[in-house]
């Protein structure tokens, strides 16, 4: 464990290969109705908050009913898959154990981790592709005093892929925070923004020591691509690079 890493963090620089552990995936389902799709940035932010809500839920901790699945998942790669649902599909997804997180226009339901080949039927039949969303207006500048998940300006991703990567970034920030900072973030409702910086700002961010997500390359982008920098105020100027392959 790097010095200063929050106690109990699953992140270990010196740990055994995360590929050797049984692989699980965290399912997220975005509600995308034809008549009223969510804005892209709001969907990304809502997905990131959904991951944080799942990580901090009492059912995910200690002897909670989801705790074993959460530990098994975090012992391996922190894979996340975003699928889309509408109408009756969404209602079937809502009937399964999970948590729905609502943004300004987005709804995302997150479920306890499942084995890669063990998806519930109601989720397995949902589509992964086709999650293409737009922002009706450019996002406003992020609050510099709040957490920001910075997306790589030079890597093109579908909305579903970007939602998963934003979730990775939020999770890396959560792992690195102290218990007190985690509690403060949770009690505030997990405020955060997802933004895309200019290329020169991106290069500075990746060298800043903040947690960096490098994609494992299972879908869409090349292995090792840096996708997100997790910029939480409590982690600024920490001076130690942390990375995780999602």
Automatic annotation (TrEMBL):
Highest taxon, organism lineage: Bacteria
EC number per UniProt: 3.1.1.29
Listed InterPro entries: Pep_tRNA_hydro_II_dom_sf, PTH2
Keywords annotated in UniProt: Hydrolase
Pfam families cross-referenced by the UniProt entry: PTH2
GO terms assigned for molecular function: hydrolase activity
Lineage: Bacteria, Bacillati, Actinomycetota, Actinomycetes, Kitasatosporales
Catalysed transformations (reactions): an N-acyl-L-alpha-aminoacyl-tRNA + H2O = an N-acyl-L-amino acid + a tRNA + H(+)
This protein's name: peptidyl-tRNA hydrolase
Top EC class for this record: hydrolase
